[in-house]
Write a structure and sequence with these properties.
Layout lengths: L9 H11 L4 H8 L3 H8 L8 H11 L3 H11 L42 H11 L4 E5 L6 H13 L12 E5 L9 H9 L9 H9 L4 E6 L5 H14 L3 E6 L9 E5 L14 H5 L2 H13 L8 H12 L4 H9 L6 H7 L3 H4 L14 H10 L3 H10 L6 E2 H8 L3 H10 L4 E4 L4 E4 L2 H13 L3 H28 L1
Parallel strand pairs: 1-4, 1-5, 2-3, 3-4
Antiparallel strand pairs: 6-8, 7-8
Helix pairs in contact: 2-3, 4-6, 6-7, 9-10, 12-13, 12-14, 13-15, 18-20, 18-21, 19-22
């Protein structure tokens, strides 16, 4: 009988599971989108605590689940067993941000707060970056596009030197505060230390500098400078064969070769009730809410009824990270019960973001104002009118109630991450996050058009119900 103790360290576990899967280091590296040298370093213990994204890639490549996955994740954190999904008291603090030294040139800022969840999203973005040279992370305001992009960039910047993909650097270009599209090229050049030369445009100088370098360029917050960012990305990618561009924007750039990918909300608790503490703790939205709440109230814990209240708050806020963080900050002066009862007026309640953030990132209303202001007037009117649909709608319903040329305007709202497309059994359906719908409804009420749209919606529902009754009656007579 085999009396050997089971493998305990990450190096031992990785080798054990790789061999059990019948894979060589090279085959595992290809499957996980990592380097063979990186796998070797992990198995030899040269690198003991890999980044979260690397761990997720390995878990998926090895097909680990249940206890095997938990043991692997625990070993990757340098502990002897699986850790709880979320801290519930002071004895289990949130993981500290990673401040280890990057292995490539970079200007990425250090993280000031812990990064919660998103393992699958990190793995997906890394995989997409290995398949395309222009990847755009899209999504509604506050959904965490920037934070996810930065976390992915950090995992790549901390790869083992032998396995690094972007050897000449990973560079962040922050565009949120820029209002003039003509300054986009200058902003990128400044980050890279490129100067204009006599007889050559700044774009030509930038292109010559990048040349055949292995570089990842992260253009953050492009939605208000789409034309300029699209033109720059297109010009650089056509000439620089080893350049990869990762952008964040509420709308895709819309150029050839681009791969848009929508950043989802954080995972939410099951709405059917009967939630246990363990089930709540496994949800990313609850994890973030609890961790940020413990920043303002160190004694904050989830017990009894509070589990349901926290889960309800996370669902009502659609799992939007910005909204969850603003809500958690309110627990400095409110109880969880008080917070839950005030979420009907979420735009008045969820204010007071970081003083160092841009004004549009300090309150939930300001974040949605920013998206709304980027719309054309016809798109604004349609967004307002669509707010009468509380549970989603079809194209035919929107055309019947909202009037005008709906299809192209609706497509624009989907592209700008304000409306979500959901594939139905036969027809496509559309919906808004409840936070977006409430904002649009406030705009509709302020414009004095709510009663008329509600009447039109009621008439349409009654007509639809009448048609259904006739159909049912006819079927019964047959």
């Amino acid at each position: 009988m085999d009396t050997r103790s089971p493998p305990a360290t990450l190096a031992e576990l990785l080798q054990h599971y790789r061999r059990a899967a019948g894979l060589t280091q090279e085959e595992l590296a290809e499957r996980a989108h990592l380097s063979a040298q990186g796998i070797s370093n992990l198995e030899r213990g040269v690198r003991r605590l890999p980044q979260r994204g690397t761990v997720t890639l390995l878990i998926e490549a090895l097909g680990l689940a249940g206890a095997a996955r938990a043991a692997f994740e625990a070993a990757a954190r340098g502990v002897g067993g699986p850790a709880p999904a979320v801290p519930t008291d002071q004895s289990a603090p949130a993981a500290a941000p990673d401040h280890s030294t990057p292995t490539v040139p970079t200007n990425l800022p250090l993280a000031l707060t812990s990064f919660v969840g998103r393992e699958r999203e990190i793995a997906t973005v890394r995989r997409l970056l290995s398949q395309t040279r222009l990847l755009t992370l899209t999504g509604a305001g506050g959904c965490g596009k920037t934070r996810l992009a930065l976390e992915v960039a950090r995992t790549l910047a901390h790869e083992a030197p032998q396995g690094v993909v972007y050897a000449e650097g990973i560079w962040l270009v922050e565009l949120a505060a820029l209002s003039d599209g003509t300054r986009v090229v200058q902003t990128v050049a400044t980050v890279l230390g490129v100067r204009e030369r006599p007889g050559r445009s700044l774009l030509d100088s930038l292109t010559a500098f990048l040349g055949a370098k292995h570089v990842l360029l992260l253009l953050d917050n492009c939605e208000h400078l789409l034309g300029a960012c699209a033109a720059l990305a297109d010009a650089l990618l056509r000439v620089c064969p080893r350049l990869t561009v990762l952008t964040t924007s509420r709308e895709a750039l819309g150029i050839g070769g681009e791969r848009p990918w929508r950043v989802p909300s954080l995972g939410l608790p099951d709405p059917r009730g009967g939630l246990t503490l363990e089930q709540a703790a496994a949800c990313e939205a609850v994890q973030l809410f609890v961790q940020r709440a413990q920043v303002v109230r160190m004694d904050f814990t989830l017990t009894g009824r509070q589990v349901m209240l926290a889960a309800q708050a996370c669902r009502r806020l659609d799992g939007i990270p910005l909204a969850l963080e603003l809500a958690a900050a309110r627990l400095a002066v409110l109880s969880l019960d008080q917070l839950a009862t005030r979420l009907d007026d979420r735009f008045r309640l969820l204010t007071g973001g970081s003083r160092t953030a841009l004004p549009r990132q300090q309150t939930l209303r300001a974040t949605l104002d920013w998206s709304y202001d980027l719309l054309g007037e016809p798109e604004r009117l349609l967004l307002q009118r669509l707010s009468v649909f509380a549970g989603g709608w079809t194209l035919e319903a929107a055309e019947a109630i909202c009037a005008g040329e709906v299809l192209d305007l609706l497509a624009g709202l989907v592209a700008k991450s304000l409306v979500l497309l959901e594939e139905g059994a036969t027809d496509a359906r559309y919906r808004m996050l409840e936070t977006v719908r409430q904002y649009a409804r406030e705009r509709l009420v302020a414009a004095g058009k709510a009663p008329r749209l509600q009447d039109r919606h009621l008439d349409w529902c009654q007509a639809l119900a009448g048609q259904a009754a006739q159909h049912i009656g006819g079927a019964e007579r047959e």
